[in-house]
Prior knowledge:
The protein has one domain (2-75). Helices cover 83% and strands 0% of the residues. It starts with a helix and ends in an 11-residue tail after the last helix. By secondary structure, it is an all-alpha fold.
Amino acid sequence: MEPIKETMRALLQEMILPELKDIKDTLIRHEERLNSVDKRIDDINTHLIDQIRRIDEVREDLTTPHHQRHGMAAFGVRMIW
């Protein structure tokens, strides 16, 4: 019975283990690629947040009356202290 067991073990090691190694290597490559894509998405999100902030600032400038944005100088009044 022992020779059959050893023969089966050798067969499995010869056929299955190389396949498992290939699957593991492929998984590692996919994980590396996924990490790269995640990093890029984080960079894009950071950029979009900055763009939204800048748009909000411009919107505020455009909706705020001119004299509130620039003080009394907008009316030609100079403050002398």
